[in-house]
Amino acid sequence: MAVLIREHTTVHRGQGPTITRQRRRAFLILALPAVILYTIFFVGPTLASFWVSLHAWDGVTEMRWRGLDNFTLLFEDEVFLAAFRNTLAILLAGGLLVFMLSFALLLGMRAMAGRRFARSVVFFPNIIAPIVLSVLWGFLFSTDGLVNAALGGVGLDAPNWLGDHLFLVIFLGLIWTNTGFYVTILMAATDRIPRYFYEAAELDGAGPLQQFRHITMPLSWDVVSTAAVIWTISSLKVFDFIYAFGGTSNDLPPIHTWNTAVFIYGQTFGGRVPAYSFGYASASAVITLVSVIVFVLLLRRVMRRDPIQF
Amino acid sequence: MMRRSVSHRLPRAMVILAAVAVTASACGIEGTKNSKVGAPEPGETITYWSMWEENEPQATVIKEAITAFTKETAIQVKVEWQGRKVLQKLTPALRSGDVPDLVDQDGNSVRGAMVANGQHHDLSAVMSAQVPGEGKTVAEVGPGRYRDLITDSAGKPFLVPYEALGYGIFYNGAKHPELAAASPATWDDFIAMLDGRKAKVALDGDIGSYAALWTVHALGAELGAGKVRELAADKTGGAWSGPQVRPALERIEKLAKGGYFAPGSFGSKFPAMQEKWAAGQADFLLMGSWAPSETQKSAPQDFQYRALPFPGMSAVQAAVIGFAVPKRAAHPAAAERFIASFMKKERMQGLATVALNITTRPDIPAPEQLADIARQLTNKPVTPFYEGLDTLGTYPIEVFEPVHTEFLSGKITAAEFVTRLGEKQAEFWKKNS
Amino acid sequence: MVAVNLAVLAWMLITSVREHREIFATPFDWPGFAWGNYAEAWQSADFGVAAANSLILVATAAVAVVIVAAPAGYALGRSVERAAASLTLYFALGIGVPVQVIVIPLFVLMERLSLVNNLFGLFLLYVAVSLPFTVFLLTGYFASLPGELEEAAAIDGASRLRTFWTIMLPLARSGLITAFTLNAIGLWNEAFLALVFVQSTDKQTLPLALLGFLAKQQYSGADYGVLFAGVAILVLPMLLLYVWLGRRIIEGMTLGAGK
């Protein structure tokens, strides 16, 4: 994501004022529809929810002013803090794993026959409904499930996955479903790299790892950093997959598996008798959003690097 | 099971249908005059958001009732078959004011979505209205029994229940035929019975509220109506260490550590364990009255659904499903009139015969597989499902269930349970005051 | 990983034609060819109308998102204006906002516009909530396209709008198709907004139908074979779309990049 990562190139410097004005007009015409739609139907309600976060509100009756009380409470709320820790675990540890896996797959599939097919298949978990995965996970990881049968087969202890390590199981599922998405994005980027770079490198005797380090990475850096930002932002919104572990369609999953998105749902519409605490939920969303801003700015600093035009 | 029961039930259903047809035509003459509730205009249209999906049997029954009602009163009913998430849709609508005239859902959900914010309509008038053609009031024909489950803080009813759900310890009557005549009366009898039969209890322990059923029932049996909720509502959390709580917790501790739960009860994913129970790999399942319909596809042909009352409990945990009217409904009088007319025996009967549920009218026989539960509901006082803990906001999921699952799965002792629960509870109420 | 994914797909399809009792007895086994599961799922969940609604809604919304987002992405990705950087951040932050939080204010807004329980209203919402991600994706995409052609066009005196339309858009084809596909898949599975904003059964979308179908099982008996058939009905169209367009992405790449 170039603009976030770098200041723009200097191609257009030195052009006359008329052209600048014309460019500005074109800029407006091009960007305006998206900006308007987004502002009315998305940013407006979001700002409204900032306002709501300063109140106690059940969504129906009048709001009661609470000032910053929601926020001070949240920072003492064990349930929220645990959810926030899980969110961070998904963001950082999950991100690391997803990207390592994606690059490994990219490398592995570069020379593979039938890679178009492989690419479609890798993406597949993204399409499938989380409910199927949660049912499958249930069969695989139950105490008498396939995983433990396999572990028992090689003489290892069979842990109680769903009882004692549920978050880990969900975490693995998340990595698995998301990797396909990032492989797809990264592959679209690396496919644009001209073949002759690799051919030349091969003539110079570079192995696949070296090619990856000296050609693939630098030439797709833009997209890699975009993907990193997308992961940062979207990992905070992971919801369906955790929610699907709630058992019946009425029940929420156990609180130790919650992330902030599930927390928000639990404080608003979720559960057998929903809590409808929109003020409190909005406050937790504001905290989440602020963390997004911090992380994106950090990433932007860390990953800033001049792109290479080719 | 399914196929067999249908073929069994079909002739009976036809007899009842014929009977219904006769009664319907018999009272059709005076049907229109009996409007004691409000003064709805003929030709009005009320909007009804239903918790059922259009192709569910309950919807079929309600549809027939609507047709008959419109014929009687010339009031049209426009139905949106919203399904179970009906109240989720209602919340934003309540804010904007464009609300339906009639909704239905279980009592506690309605309490959370409509009563907590004062958006419900007082249904006292319906409860005391005559059921058309029967010479009795709505409350008298059955719904009055469930008064404690359906009143707001001012004691006014916000719901007119048409279905009741009760809890029991389900088992296969074909496998344990002697139990029907000699059900264990006390907890010790119950444990002795389990020991004697080397029987296992199935539990989908991944669902915190299902696991909690055991302890909450045991506490309710020991302490009596309303007391468990008082323990939970104690701001300091200290109430749990009271001496009267200990016997019940010690019983559950023994159950937890005694290996009574079938293997996998705390290490699989719902509905794996109740499926195993239906398939005969476990003997007992403490569950609500939906257990038979949920498991019928897995149960063998000769499975007989029977249910024991919870040992030592003088009341029965129950929940109800019924109609409610939003405060800002445009046609409350017409909606009330529809509710009263639905309470007629002939209209509600289908809920038992077609939809296989227990109705709130004791004079409508319950379906065979729920007969034991229905008997409890008729003969014992009712106490709210989950002892009303689920009306304490997020208390069950945030406080009670996480600590409790550790306890029931044998990871912590009763004493540790009391300490931890007390701490968490104090924190929770500090945050939610 | 490829093998695991194929196994999961196969398992899902096999399970969708097995009988409920068998699934729980032996979760991993060969099919019993209970094709009736599909018929039952289709009927009992009203998938017919829902499928039509979903198809129209998702197709139009995913196209509309790309139509609105592509010019914005170009403007933001290839501009020297200082506004571009802050606008990009403005869009990027939207990706992090959970819908649950904005749903009540959003409902009030839609109510004022009389767009509740209205498929056009849902269409607008889908476009709006998909914009942040799509603009973000396409901004990055346009920024990474080679600049020579654009400069050449500028030297030839072509206007910005013209350059965008005739040169950059075709170049970005694979990016546009990627954006379309990802949005189509995301919206196809979207259930929460539909749940809140659609009230009539005849306007419901496929995920809503599936959700109702799941909830219904609590009272009228669960059948996991039928459940999986229902899920397969939801998943297979998207799988086909992806497989079909996945090829187009590569085609677009070779045509567009011209290298």
From TrEMBL, chain A:
Residues 84-299 form the ABC transmembrane type-1 domain. CDD domains: TM_PBP2. Keywords: Cell membrane, Membrane, Transmembrane, Transmembrane helix, Transport. GO terms for biological process: transmembrane transport. The keyword Glycosyltransferase does not apply. The chain crosses the membrane at residues 27-54, 88-109, 121-141, 166-189, 223-245, 278-299. It holds the Pfam family BPD_transp_1. It comes from the Bacteria. One of its GO terms (cellular component) is plasma membrane. It is found in: Cell membrane. It is a multi-pass membrane protein. Its main location: membrane. Belongs to the binding-protein-dependent transport system permease family. This is Carbohydrate ABC transporter membrane protein 1 (CUT1 family). The lineage of its organism: Bacteria, Bacillati, Actinomycetota, Actinomycetes, Streptosporangiales.
Automatic annotation (TrEMBL), chain B:
PROSITE patterns: PROKAR_LIPOPROTEIN. The keyword Transport does not apply. Keywords: Signal. Residues 1-26 form the signal peptide. Coiled coil: none annotated. This is Carbohydrate ABC transporter substrate-binding protein (CUT1 family). It comes from Nonomuraea fuscirosea. The lineage of its organism: Bacteria, Bacillati, Actinomycetota, Actinomycetes, Streptosporangiales.
Automatic annotation (TrEMBL), chain C:
GO terms for biological process: transmembrane transport. This is Carbohydrate ABC transporter membrane protein 2 (CUT1 family). Pfam families: BPD_transp_1. Signal peptide: none annotated. Belongs to the binding-protein-dependent transport system permease family. It comes from the Bacteria. The chain crosses the membrane at residues 49-75, 87-108, 120-143, 164-188, 224-245. The keyword Cell membrane applies. SUPFAM superfamilies: MetI-like.
